[in-house]
């Protein structure tokens, strides 16, 4: 038993020596041949106190990091995690500093897990990547501050023309305050009544947005 | 029946020949586009304020400040402000004829008083429907022209965003209900108009009744709650109901039926009053 | 039985015990009116006598406190459309829709009466001399013009019965003459029956065939003008001759006339209508040239006298 444990630790250390930057670069390299890409995304939101219709938008990607959207009306698009390989390029720069790499399991699959700190929306935020050891694709990203989880992005992939591209992406996020519980104007509440909640409600203010990808066109 | 059509035509000619009829059209026709222009210039931070919690994690594409949002917001004038334009015309329908002595011309023709009353009701209803539709057309038309179209941001136990196609159908239902609400306002003004011999009385009286009823409907005191079902203003907010998801049809039909009962009551009282009325002016 | 029915239908207007009470005051009390086809019925009385109240009851503008009304043998409460399609009325002056033109006012009123053609509207406007002003808004009309428009609307649909309440109010002397001629024309041409109220008798006395005098809501006298006046001092015959003095002398000596006065170059004689041919014959036999013989009723004097008598009583 001791021997098995020793081997595991040793292998982890050896892998860790590979370094997050190398893993990130390796993932990015897989998508280097994609210059342009078009796809459709259906956005399904489940956010407390916000109901909106499912919306299908068209996304236009241009290497290395341009992403444009065409939608009729209003659409809510996560700031991160739409195309993970593109996010890697954005996240990983000269200013990024990585914590040590560790191994973990996610849904029974072995993952490399590493965290980088980089100012995103605030100075205290950290991004943690879960990279599938076997397929070398990002399975999950979490963004946290020193106290709380801010958001968590889970990816499910489909293989299109030899590229692992997102099939369904689930974006879980937590809001500091909930979206106001605004009542429709009525004769008893002519101006509506609003309850904005409190910071203590933080973990009750969890929202979820799903992105369902289809109709890819790679280098059209 | 043919006589009734002639009477309705005559009443419509009279309504649309009076300068006061156009006060509402001019006010709405000028004020609403002006509001749209001001919002185009100075913006409207309402959706931004309500959705600011999402800005940390999301990019919001497409503006929610559009013609539909402002039109939705402007529908709240249908409670207190808009009825004035309806009362102005409906309140004059009988009392105006009485004060000018023109009933002597009208009622010495081969027409019955019930026919005259029905024609006045129908023609006032046509004016009312036209006026509310005009508000809708100007509001949505100038809004879409100046602020563009898009999804509709409304309040419904939080924020509800309706797709553009949904928004159009919801507005159609809402304005139809708004017409119905304003018809009850018109019925009240007509009833008071049959009682008074001077149009100022029914205009001020109807407005006073509406404001007092709205205040009573708004007060959340237990002692007054029992009174609410008997106040027609308690059902005035029905035109906001179609902006809920799903549309609460049961509630809507309940309110429509209650308003219908008030309308019928006002009509019956008008008939009783007008048929017995001595035309002495 | 059949003849009884026929007699009933001869009345265009018939009221039985017609009464109207305002609060504690009887404005009209037990009024029995009878107006027959083709009559020009003067409804006379001082201000406040109950004339307008009666007309308003006839036109169903106000309710009847007591009694019944029959117009063309029908009760207006049940057959109002059938009755009022045959009646034209001007009730207590004329007020029109000020924001419409004279033509538009007649157009909409005509529509309510049935199909009234444009030419008919123009015809009645011509009759009351409003052709030139027909497209001006009524708010710009003078009182006299409005009154003329009021008379025009009463004649618009060629009614069989015209009820006019103080029709001469606000009219110029020419206007009064025109209205009188209109009334005469319609009676002669179409057999129209007229029911005309007035407190100024001189305006209509020349045209009335029948009359009722009312005061304090009650009828004092009713009947044909001739029947009422012929046995009174208010029924005279005017004669123009080439020698008034000689004529007076001849007639004074005869027993054909009760009283003879020379006034305004005419002989004014109190006599019965039957004596008129004999008077003319007598004057001609005495070589007097008779140019005109005109029966005249001095209705106003009679009217004033009976009102005075009533008030004395």
Topology (elements, then pairings):
The complex is a heterotrimer of chains A (220), B (281) and C (313).
Chain A: H1 2-16, H2 20-30, E1 36-46, E2 50-51, E3 55-62, E4 66-70, E5 75-78, H3 84-91, E6 97-98, E7 102-106, E8 109-117, E9 126-132, E10 138-144, E11 149-160, E12 163-174, E13 206-218
Antiparallel strand pairs in A: 1-3, 1-13, 3-4, 6-8, 7-8, 8-9, 9-10, 10-11, 11-12, 12-13
Chain B: H1 2-17, H2 21-42, H3 46-50, E1 58-61, H4 67-74, H5 77-80, H6 83-90, H7 92-100, H8 103-106, H9 113-147, E2 152-155, E3 159-162, H10 164-195, H11 200-218, H12 222-225, H13 249-276
Antiparallel strand pairs in B: 2-3
Helix pairs in contact in B: 1-9, 2-9, 4-9, 6-9, 6-10, 6-11, 7-10, 9-10, 9-13, 10-11, 10-13
Chain C: H1 2-9, E1 11-22, E2 25-31, E3 34-36, E4 40-44, H2 51-58, E5 66-71, H3 80-84, E6 87-90, H4 102-113, H5 118-127, H6 143-155, E7 161-165, H7 173-190, E8 193-198, E9 210-215, E10 218-224, H8 225-229, E11 235-241, H9 244-253, E12 259-263, E13 266-270, H10 276-285, E14 290-297, H11 299-312
Parallel strand pairs in C: 4-8, 4-9, 6-7, 7-8
Antiparallel strand pairs in C: 1-2, 1-3, 1-5, 9-10, 11-13, 11-14, 12-13
Helix pairs in contact in C: 4-5
The backbone outline of chain C, from C-alpha atoms, is globular
Say how many strands of chain C there are. 14
Strand order of the largest sheet of chain C: 6-7-8-4-9-10
Which two chains form the greatest contact, residue counts included?
A-B, 43 and 44 residues
Q: How many whole angstroms does the radius of gyration of chain C measure?
A: 22 Å
Rg of chain B from C-alpha positions? 21 Å
- Please work out how many helical segments of chain B DSSP would assign: 13
Mean pLDDT of chain C: 86
Q: Assembly state here?
A: heterotrimer
Overall mean pLDDT of chain B stands at 91
Roughly how many Å apart are the termini of chain B? Answer: 29 Å
